[in-house]
Specification:
The protein is an alpha/beta fold. The chain contains ten helices and 22 strands. This is Glucosylceramidase.
Length: 524
């Protein structure tokens, strides 16, 4: 067998002291929900720190749980047995089975996120950004940036609000970009050990380009693809890329527009631009694709859909089966809302198998969006489980990255001009100059901290039926990662087995997310 080293990341419960370099303990606070938040201020914030590979023949484990563990670490010895396996549940790694490679994890720098981050003192701002982006943080490498206003803004605006300005002579970034989002993005990039992948999404075209003459509600672009409105809207994207480039911020990708299905709904309450899949196909083929290709940013990826995955595979089939549109497209962007209505293997899996050359990328998710479960819930472990369940499900159906929504919100879940309040992994209390790291922050961390860009999903199977959910990856350095979620109320005993390396006996406590890590070098 060729030499390779193995790092398995699997979340496991432990009461032992944190063994990570530079680690700091959570200052837990209860707000009446199922678990705790970790409180941070200008001088202190908990951190897992760096997570080096353990010594040969040992493993590291990391735990987050409803009981209050937050990325707690311990080490143990890898077991080598010659008399067969122990009875019970076994998870077997199969690195020969290879699937998609990852691009990364992240969140969105909305106007609301920027407002909340900047509402803190300079020291607390630095702590918050470090939690996401520094080498001591959780490894975010993707930042979604709304092009002009969305519902998580305090006002309605675009960058070209002058009627009839088809040449975009008056195109101008907003104060929200120049004074808030751009400075924060530059600070995040400066502390990140790798280049950040910026992703741009627009919510609405200027009102004068649209059939309803408004940024909100049911409305599409005037005219037809290839016409002057459609070409102006494509050039709007290029102007956005040009203006941000003046600040040395370049975009890895852009989407064809946030939730195009929303703009087809009568009385839709906030910014939207309606596209049918046929209209999106033709706009990419005739306008957006050629505009990007002939611009100074031909390397910028174009992602279609940027809407709920239940629209797949139909939407992708309409757009990608057309060679004129498909040649400009790199991937399909999906949101997590309404995921429970269609099984992932039918939406995501089918799309991958139909069009394997186009990657699937998660571009938006948040808790607290549904009518019966709205807004911020400080300390909700159920929402952490929702995140981990969805990420594992997505990864196991060929998704290459997962992007959370607002990086930070206030305690009401805003600001949001239409009062569409939701939750966030980081909630800011500006009055006390503190911020709270929600259970969802740690749920994301179990993926973003350990699954580096270029990690490749590999096979893993259970020896019997189990409520455990899991996914496995080989990282670029040859180490491996296995993430396990236990949403049940039972403690589950199991072992992890790689035929070339040995066994790790594991305990998945009730309501926990488990991460195991080990490094073994084979020299023969």
């Amino acid at each position: 067998m060729a030499p390779w080293c193995f790092l398995l990341v699997l979340v496991i419960i432990s009461a032992e002291p944190n063994l990570c370099s530079g680690s700091r303990k959570c200052v837990g606070r209860h707000f009446g929900h199922s678990s705790v938040v970790c409180e941070c201020n200008s001088t202190y914030c908990d951190s897992i720190g760096s997570v080096p590979l353990p010594p040969l023949g040992q493993y590291s484990s990391y735990l987050s749980s409803m009981e209050g563990s937050r990325l707690e670490a311990r080490q143990g010895q890898i077991q080598v047995r010659t008399n067969g396996s122990a009875p019970g549940l076994r998870l077997t790694m199969d690195p020969v089975q290879k699937y998609q490679r990852l691009r990364g994890f992240g969140g969105a720098m909305t106007d609301a996120a920027a407002i909340n981050i900047l509402s803190l003192s300079a020291g607390a701002q630095e702590q918050l950004l470090q939690q996401y982006f520094s080498s001591e943080g959780i490894g975010y490498s993707v930042v979604r940036v709304p092009m002009a206003s969305c519902d998580f803004s305090t006002r309605l605006y675009t960058y070209a609000d002058t009627p009839g300005d088809y040449n975009l002579v008056n195109f101008t970034l907003a104060p929200e970009d120049v004074d808030m989002k751009i400075p924060l993005l530059k600070r995040a990039q400066a502390m990140s050990p790798q280049p950040l992948h910026l992703l741009a999404s627009a919510w609405s075209a200027p009102a004068w380009m649209k059939t309803n003459g408004a940024l909100v509600g049911k409305g599409s672009l005037k005219g037809q693809p290839g016409g002057k409105e459609h070409k102006a809207w494509a050039q709007y994207y290029i102007r956005f890329l040009e203006e941000y480039a003046k600040y040395n911020l370049t975009f890895w990708a852009l989407t064809t527009g946030n939730e195009p299905s929303a703009g087809l709904i009568t009385n839709y309450s906030f910014q939207a631009l309606g596209f049918t899949p046929e209209e999106q196909r033709d706009w990419v083929a005739l306008d957006l694709g050629p505009a990007v290709r002939s611009s100074s940013f031909p390397q910028t990826h174009i992602l279609i859909l940027d809407d709920n995955r239940l629209l797949l595979p139909y939407w992708a089939t309409v757009v990608l089966s057309d060679v004129h549109a498909a040649r400009y497209i790199h991937g399909v962007a999906v949101h997590w809302y309404l995921d429970s209505f269609v099984p992932a293997e039918i939406s995501l899996g089918s799309t991958h198998h139909l069009y394997p050359e186009y990657y699937l990328f998660g571009t938006e998710a948040c808790a607290g969006w549904s009518t019966g479960d709205r807004g911020v819930k400080l300390g909700s472990w159920e929402r952490a489980e929702q995140y981990a369940h969805d990420i594992i499900q997505d990864l196991n159906q060929y998704v290459v990255g997962w992007t959370d929504w607002n990086l930070a919100l206030d305690q009401a879940g805003g600001p949001n001009w239409v009062k569409n309040f939701v939750d966030s992994p980081v909630v800011v209390d500006a009055q006390r100059d503190v911020f709270y790291k929600q259970p969802t922050f740690y749920s994301l961390a179990h993926f973003s901290k350990f699954l580096w860009e270029g990690s490749q999903r590999v096979g893993v199977s259970a020896s019997e039926e189990t409520p455990l959910e899991f996914t496995a990856f080989i990282r670029p350095d040859g180490s491996a990662v296995l993430i396990v979620l236990n949403r049940s109320s039972d403690v589950i005993q199991f072992e992890v087995w790689d035929p070339a390396l040995g066994y790790i006996p594991c305990t998945a406590p009730a309501r926990s997310l488990l991460t195991l890590a080990w490094n073994t070098l084979n020299t023969h």
